[in-house]
Amino acid sequence: MISNESKKVRKPKKVKRDPVFNTEEMLPISEILQDTIILKDWGLRAILKVDGLNLDLRNYEEQQIVVEQYKKFLNWLSFPIQIWVRSNYLDLTDYIKYLKDNIAKIENDVLKFQAEQYTYFIERLNEQKGMIYVKEFYVIVPFYSGEKDVENIRKPFWQKLLSILEPKETPEKILMRRREFFKNKSQLDMRVNLVQGGLRELGMTSQRLNTKQLLGLFFEFYNPTSHKSQTKTA
After folding, report:
1. Which DSSP letter does residue 128 get?
2. How far is CA 180 from CA 176, 184, 207, 215, in A?
3. What is the C-alpha to C-alpha distance for residues 95 and 125, in angstroms, rounded to an integer?
4. b/e code 158-186 from CB counts within 10 Å (16+ = b)
5. Is 170 helix (H, G, I), strand (E, B) or coil?
6. Which end of the chain, N or C, is surrounded by fewer C-beta atoms within 10 Å?
7. What would the mean pLDDT of 206-226 be, rounded to a whole number?
8. What is the mean pLDDT of residues 15-42?
C-alpha cells in the first residue's frame, strides 16, 4: 500500500563561514580628519615631523646642556608621547630631473660633459635602491576622552586587536566617533602646542602633518613600492 503523505524535503544546512577581514578592517584607524587621526578605540592622534639635532657637531658642554633640557622636557609633560625614528629610502628622482633640466642651459662644453657624467652617476645610484637612507623623526601626540591615555595605551596587544576586529564599522558608530572628535580636538591641539613649544626650547623645529601628509605617510608605510606613483597622481 502506497502512502500519499508527502515526503519532507530537507533543507541544506547553511555552512558557517569564518569572517573575512580586509586590510581596512585590520587597521586601527577609523578616519583622518582636520590633520588628526581618529582611532577605532575613540582615541585621537596628531603627528609632528621634527628636524633632527646633530650632537656630534657640538662640544661636550653643549651636548650635556641639550641632554639636560631634553630630560626636563620629558619630565615636564603630563601626558605620554611616542617618538618614532624611521629610516626611509632617499629617492633622487626629482633631483635627477632638476639636473637634466639645467644641463641644457650650460654653454661650456667641458662643464656640460662633467654635468652629464655626474647625472649618469646619480641615476645609476638611484637605481640601486637601498644605497642611501635618511632618518626621519616623528613625535606622536595622543588624546583619549577623560585623559585616560596611559590606561588605553598600555592595554595588551590582543585586547587592542580584538577591539579592532570584533565591532563592525557602522554609520552610527562613525557618526558618534566624529561627534566625540569635535569635542576633544581642542584638547589635542593644546597638547600639540605644548610639545612644539618644548621642542623649540631644545632648538628643534617641528611641523604638524596635515591631512594630505598623513594620508601619504600611511600609504607609503603600507605600500612602500608604489607610494611614489600615488604621490604623483594625488
Report:
1. S
2. 6, 6, 25, 21
3. 12
4. eebeebbeeeeeeeeeeeebeeebeebbe
5. coil
6. N
7. 86
8. 74
Cell numbers 612602500: residue = 224
Paired with 50 in beta bridges are 137, 206
Report pLDDT digits (tens) over 122-172: 888 888 765 677 889 999 999 987 655 555 555 555 455 555 555 566 677
Across 33-53, average pLDDT: 89
Say if CB 31 and CB 39 are below 8 A apart. Answer: no
Q: Is the pLDDT reported for residue 226 higher than 80? A: no
Asked if the model's pLDDT at residue 5 lies above 60, the reply is no
What is the rounded distance in angstroms from the CA atom of residue 186 to the CA atom of residue 156? Answer: 28
Spatial neighbors of 136 by CB under 8 A, at least 6 apart, are: 49, 85, 86, 87, 88
Q: Which one-letter amino acid corresponds to residue 49? A: K
Q: How far is CA 52 from the centre of its chain?
A: 18
Task: Name the DSSP class of 8.
Answer: P
Q: What are the extents of the domains in the chain?
A: 32-86+136-226, 91-131
